[in-house]
Fold this protein.
Amino acid sequence: MAEYNRPTSEEEFKENFKQKKPLMNPTEAYYESSRCLFCYDAPCIQACPTGIDIPLFIKQIQTQNTEGAAKTIFDSNWLGNACGVVCPTGVLCEGACVYNHQDVPPIQIGRLQNYATATTIATNKRLFAPGNSIGKKVAVIGSGPAGIACACELRTLGVEVDIFEAKDKPSGLTVYGIAPYKITNEEVLSEITYLQEQLEFNIKYNAAINSKTQLGELESDYDAIFLGVGLGKTASLGLDGENKEGVVGAVEFIEELRMKHHKITVPDNVVVIGGGNTAMDAASEAARMGAKKVILAYRRDKQSMGAYRFEYDLAISAGVESLFNATPLKIVGDKNATGVQFERVKSQNGDLTPIPDSDFIVPCDLVIKATGQAKQKHFYEMVEGLKIDKKTRILVNDQYQTSNPKYFAGGDAVNGGAEVVNAAYEGKMAAQGIVSWLGS
Ligand code: SF4
């Protein structure tokens, strides 16, 4: 189990947040690519949400055609580099690799993907160009993975694209919401710059669209609008004391950490509430920032957590402790949070039953709520005729077109919160849907 000192410089921060999947060197990539069996009907392709021709790009790496490999990857997934690093490959492509049946480590597909794309981005090799103009313009709201993928695909299909981004950087949660030991800001941004230079889509920063009037203007200025708005801030728990100082949302905590690195101070005692991947990220990050005690509290048992097992193991290996079958009742303290009051629960047929007189307080100076993000309901209400489901997800047809035909949507706003690779796929498919609708 690792113990981390509080980082006081960028070097120390980088040491504590060393990437889990570092870039391969050419020898490693050659050796690893040589292990691939280039399976017919390869199960790794079936397991990739974007259907990348994995044996083909591995063959291209093995034959020293690194740029060809990058082209194969980007042709299926515009966020090919980011996905090579942040995808849960163990449950996707690598989890499906035939080597798993033989007790042999699977091919490191993610790292090979990262090798091909990062090498090509670093040399700035031009692989793409905008398609011949079809005389149409599309507004994309949000520059997260769905928005960027949609913009890239639209440009190859000859459509003008303006992206409207509320923040001052692109990429949505890929920069703001993913743990820094998975991918650095520089790596995320270099992929987007690489694509933007070749495909020439515009990104307007600090350009939040948050009124009906603005939407009306977009509707008259553009032929279609793509909503890649993602999710909102961390949802409220409705707990007594939730508004005290020292209670933060996991998404906001991770965002601040990613932007300020060692310049933020995480206190000694931290409680993270939640059992999903974001909770694991937040807990790992608090430990890597030098907190002495980080407790991950989840109301059900370990097996019921939504997080991938490897994410949980990563948090534990960073020194995080876990507390299961405990429901938070309130945040205690005066102005500042000084602890969380829990009660023990037992699970019967999926229902949680409190155990009488089992209350206890876990002292802490920081509470991180990692219990999901709020949906952008207020925004959806501004779009005329936009239908959402019971979980406040935008409803789309198989072309990713919403109930208002001028609007298409993809990514977390549609799937409720999934992986970067899912958003990249949906953005690409929506672009094809838009072009097919514009041409009809
Ligand atoms: Fe190569 Fe494994 Fe895919 Fe087969 S399943 S093509 S061995 S990566």
User: Anything to note?
Assistant: Residues 420-438 form the longest helix (19 residues). The domain at 247-369 is CATH 3.50.50.60 (FAD/NAD(P)-binding domain).
